[in-house]
Specification:
Layout (H helix, E strand, L loop, with lengths): L1 H15 L7 E2 L13 E7 L4 E10 L4 E8 L5 E9 L2 E2 L3 E5 L4 E7 L10 E8 L2 E8 L13 E9 L5 E8 L8 E7 L5 E5 L6 E8 L7 E9 L7 E9 L6 E4 L17 H9 L8 H24 L1
Antiparallel strand pairs: 1-8, 2-3, 3-4, 4-8, 5-6, 5-7, 5-9, 9-10, 11-12, 12-15, 13-14, 13-16, 16-17, 17-18
Length: about 300
C-alpha cells in the first residue's frame, strides 16, 4: 500500500513540472470580461525606457480571465504573465511587444479548477504585481458531463492460471491530473485496487486481479476516486457481471461513499448472488455430467407428453 502511494506521488510530481498550457489569444476589442473590475499592474524603468502596463479582469460567474498587455515605453518590451488555477499552471508565458503595441487574451478556467474542492484560488502574476481571486464553485464530480475521470470500458480476462482479471479503462477529459484509485469489490474479492494519474485528455488501463476462478461468474462493482478520503473525491462507479467466455455487462451505479470512510463498501447484490450461485457453465461440465443432464431433459419431456395424453 505504502509503495503504491509513493509511486503515485512521483507521478503527480512529474505532472507538476510539465510545461503550462497556453491560453488562447483573442483580438483586441473582444473582451468577454467587459464591465468587470480592472486591476492595473505596471513595470517601469525610465533609464531604459521601459513602461509596460497590464490590465487584469476576472468574471467569477463565467470563470473567465482577461488580461491586456500594453507597451507604453520606448522600443521593444518583453512582457510576462503567470497564472495558477488551484495550483495548476495555464500561463500564456512571455510576449515581446513593439512600441505602442498591445496584446489581449482570455481563458475560461472551469476545466482547470480542482473538482474535489469547493473553494478555489486563481493567482496571477502580471509584471511586478501578484493578484489572487478567491471564489466558491461546486462541481458534481459524478455527473456525466463533469471534467473528471470516468470509466469508458470494463473487461474480464480469464487467464490460463484459473484466475480472472478486471481491466478497467479510465479517461480523464479535464485539464487536471488527479491521484486516482481504481478499486474493485466482488463476491470473492475485497478492496483490490490499482493507482495512477491519467494526464489531462488521456486514457489509462488499470488491471486488477480478482479471486474468482476463470470458470466462475464474476459480479461486482468498480470505483474510480481521488485519494482524498472525502465525498468530493468520487468520480465514477460501475456495477458489472461477466459469465465465462462472454463479454462483461456493465451499468451505472450510484456512488454512495468513498472507500476509506467508515461506511462498508463491500459488494452485496442478492439478485447477482442468486444468479451466480445457480449458474452452471455447460462447457465446464464433464462428459459424464453432460450425459446425465441430457437424460434428465429426456425424462422431463417424456413426462410432459404422457401427462398431456392422460388428460
Amino acid at each position: 500500500m505504502a509503495s503504491k502511494r509513493l509511486i503515485l506521488v512521483l507521478i503527480l510530481v512529474s505532472f507538476a513540472v510539465t510545461p503550462a498550457i497556453s491560453a488562447i489569444s483573442m483580438p483586441a476589442g473582444k473582451n468577454p470580461c467587459l464591465g468587470e473590475k480592472k486591476y492595473i499592474a505596471t513595470e517601469l524603468d525610465e533609464s531604459v525606457g521601459l513602461h509596460s502596463k497590464y490590465t487584469v479582469q476576472f468574471d467569477e460567474d463565467e470563470k473567465q480571465i482577461c488580461i491586456k498587455r500594453e507597451n507604453k515605453g520606448k522600443g521593444k518590451a518583453l512582457t510576462s504573465v503567470g497564472i495558477l488555477v488551484d495550483g495548476r499552471g495555464i500561463s500564456p508565458g512571455t510576449k515581446e511587444l513593439e512600441e505602442n503595441e498591445s496584446s489581449f487574451f482570455s481563458k475560461n478556467v472551469t476545466e482547470y479548477i480542482d473538482a474535489t474542492a469547493d473553494n478555489h484560488t486563481i493567482s496571477i502574476n502580471a509584471g511586478s504585481k501578484d493578484l489572487n481571486f478567491n471564489f466558491t464553485h461546486h462541481i458534481n464530480t459524478t455527473a456525466k458531463n463533469s471534467p473528471t475521470p470516468k470509466f469508458t470500458d470494463l473487461e474480464i480476462v480469464r487467464d490460463s492460471g484459473d484466475k480472472s482479471i478486471l481491466i478497467a479503462t479510465v479517461h480523464n477529459p479535464g485539464k487536471r491530473a488527479y491521484a486516482l484509485h481504481v478499486q474493485a469489490e466482488t463476491f470473492e474479492t475485497e478492496g483490490a485496487f490499482e493507482i495512477g494519474a491519467p494526464q489531462p485528455g488521456n486514457t489509462s488501463e488499470f488491471q486488477i486481479p480478482l479471486n474468482e476462478g476463470a470458470n466462475e461468474v464474476v459480479a461486482g462493482k468498480v470505483m474510480v476516486f481521488n485519494d482524498t478520503g472525502s465525498p468530493d473525491g468520487k468520480f465514477d462507479q460501475k456495477e458489472f457481471m461477466a459469465k465465462p467466455n462472454e463479454t462483461a455487462n456493465a451499468w451505472d451505479d450510484h456512488f454512495e461513499q468513498v472507500p476509506g470512510e467508515r461506511a462498508d463498501v463491500s459488494y452485496d447484490n442478492e439478485t447477482a448472488r442468486q444468479y451466480r450461485e445457480g449458474y452452471v457453465d455447460d462447457e465446464a461440465l464433464s462428459p459424464l455430467e453432460r450425459r446425465a443432464g441430457a437424460v434428465l431433459v429426456v425424462f422431463a419431456l417424456l413426462g410432459a407428453v404422457l401427462w398431456r395424453r392422460s388428460r
